[in-house]
Amino acid sequence: MFKDGLKDAAARVDAGFAEVFARYPDLPVIQGMAYATNGGKRLRAYLVMESARIHGIENALMPALAIEAIHAYSLVHDDLPSMDDDDLRRGLPTVHKKWDEGTAVLVGDALQTLGFELVLSPECHADPAVRSDLALTLARAAGAQGMVLGQALDIAAETADQPLTLDEIIALQNGKTGALIRWSAEAGARLAQADTAPLTAYADALGLAFQIADDILDVTGDEAAMGKAVGKDADRGKATFVSLLGLDGAKSRAENLVEQACEALSPYGNKAQGLIDAARFVIARQT
Ligand code: GRG
Q1: Which SUPFAM superfamilies match (predicted)?
Q2: Where are the alpha helices (H) located in 23-60, listed in sequence order?
Q3: Domain that holds residue 49
Q4: ipTM summary value
Q5: Is the CB of 173 within 6 Å of ligand 1?
Q6: In Å, how far are 80, 138, 205, 212, 218 from 117, measured between CA atoms?
Q7: What's the structural domain count of the chain?
Q8: How does pLDDT run across 69-109, given as a tens digit for each residue?
Q9: CATH number of 6's domain
Q10: Are 65 and 107 in contact (CB under 8 A)?
Q11: 84 CB contacts (<8 Å, ≥6 apart)?
Q12: CB atoms within 10 A of CB 53
């Protein structure tokens, strides 16, 4: 069952991080790194492990830890007062609330470099060419052509005269959320030095469905909590998939994308069931 698979990935990731952090001195920045990498759905780690399994690779812990470290860094920095200014993350005080802003900046920086250390370590793969390919593509996914670009477009949208168009939001989310999801899904093919194309097509559709589902949850979560149909972004006057497509339109777009994602996996036959389940979970999830 998918939920068991996700739990298993989470347990492996938790144990992996515990081992990594045990090597470091007991300083606030290390405690913050352990705190920030704790919890979460571990969807990106699951995608890494499942795409590896499709290619006959059972141990993909290093790239799975790497992507969760980079994801955690992005959340710590996104929560800072100079960005989204959030007090809570995964139901707990954000890193800058629990410690301070300086510690949160360092925690994010150190988690980012940890991600690269993990994919470049010999434990990740015996072949240095594979490790270097993983690191190069991870840098592109996380940096100014990927997630940072998406975040920068999002920040710029806050002061723009006009709300973003649908195409602009798709481009923004393709970087902000899509780039790390794409790298996660492609990682298994990279480890096996195999064709990434079916996984890229899967991840492109999945990343967009994930973001649409996030916008839907933002609205339906607020509706449940406050009895009104607005989300945090829509509240700030920012365009979202829900504000542009309507709630029903957004739901049906996300469902179509999930079907598209599943079709892209046809070359893998039954071996892709874990990734198919992940795609269905993305639009069924409640958090
Ligand atoms: C600071 C460079 C920089 C980038 C931040 C990822 C991001 C960019 C911001 C997070 C804000 C946000 C809520 C984005 C929407 C989608 C998203 C990435 C949600 C969080 O991912 P989940 O749901 O989180 O997989 P968990 O906690 O389950 O790991």
Answers
A1: Terpenoid synthases
A2: 28-36, 43-54
A3: 2-284
A4: 0.91
A5: no
A6: 24, 11, 29, 32, 34
A7: 1
A8: 999 999 999 999 999 999 999 999 999 999 999 999 999 99
A9: 1.10.600.10
A10: no
A11: 78
A12: 18
